[in-house]
Amino acid sequence: xxxxxxxxxxxxxxxxxxxxxxxxxxxxxxxxxxxxxxxxxxxxxxxxxxxxxxxxxxxxxxxxxxxxxxxxxxxxxxxxxxxxxxxxxxxxxxxxxxxxxxxxxxxxxxxxxxxxxxxxxxxxxxxxxxxxxxxxxxxxxxxxxxxxxxxxxxxxxxxxxxxxxxxxxxxxxxxxxxxxxxxxxxxxxxxxxxxxxxxxxxxxxxxxxxxxxxxxxxxxxxxxxxxxxxxxxxxxxxxxxxxxxxxxxxxxxxxxxxxxxxxxxxxxxxxxxxxxxxxxxxxxxxxxxxxxxxxxxxxxxxxxxxxxxxxxxxxxxxxxxxxxxxxxxxxxxxxxxxxxxxxxxxxxxxxxxxxxxxxxxxxxxxxxxxxxxxxxxxxxxxxxxxxxxxxxxxxxxxxxxxxxxxxxxxxxxxxxxxxxxxxxxxxxxxxxxxxxxxxxxxxxxxxxxxxxxxxxxxxxxxxxxxxxxx
Length: 470
What we know:
alpha/beta, 14-stranded mixed β-sheet, elongated, disordered N terminus
């Protein structure tokens, strides 16, 4: 299939698995590891303490570099000039920390630019409606769209509604948040399903469990053979208002005006290697994406995850430690439009997948660290569980079919991996919104995440035994 179709396919697969439907599928009481391996893992206790203490002792410097990056560059949309400047910054920062083995690989990235966006309810009364266009949305026609509104609770209700009752209207999906994996379908597929019924625009209730009149953006994908209609998110408060008005039998009319552009630009994945002392061709990868949406600062999604991943080879190098395998940090580009950087890396390195011993990612917040969400064989999970014993109380283990965002596509190819588990109950409060700023972060939590990730990564990269695929 073409690169674009492959991107859309994997993007859809990513959101289908994001709800982590497979949990704790292995019984850890069944783990039977070689006693020599158990003893070897236990021998890393002191070095893990050394690594974590070093990160904590340098916590102020690390966190200040992170805050400086976020405040200097702010939002870093895929394909933008500011994203490329941010990538240059991280390359220079890596080299200034003594690591010269930093390279980049070009990625052709979508470059969607938001223009002006306004919406007003004009019947049954005049009220401004806050909207935030969804990624890749087309513009409204010149002069905007004024049309009657129909509010739908879910896709089933839309399917059961005759086409003549939808045609020419603005469909509002009032799907309440249950989990990200379930509710995000309305963001990804809403415009297509509404267009199939003849709608002229679609709006969604923002995909978040909590709102202070905040709108949340994110990617959507137009299906084939449908008219591309403008689509945006509205607040919970306005979605509730529209629902109440419709339930009372009111005729709702809204005017929407949206502009945007879409083209393609060259971006870059950034690879930072701390070469192994023995099995240099084997990789332990730790990663996070450097791009963000165009709202907020991208501090939480995914500035924190990117920065703690970047720091892994940096701090291990500073301590003059030489793991057996190569430690590679990858700063993925263009994750937000649909894992574009990761897909390019996978395609480019497909013949080298067997060299990836373990792959990790942080893209679900850098709040208080709890442990890891792991994808892999039972033997792989058992080894990770044993290593986590070194990090009590950061030793929670969750098992999923795939984990993270970018690395899901590697898990699906049989590569074992893990995503950082953290106390992120409020993650989707801020996600893809203007509220994603440094204010949601806590310095001690971010530093502890960095310390845990660095120490765990070192152990996995240095063990004499590979993480088994099967």
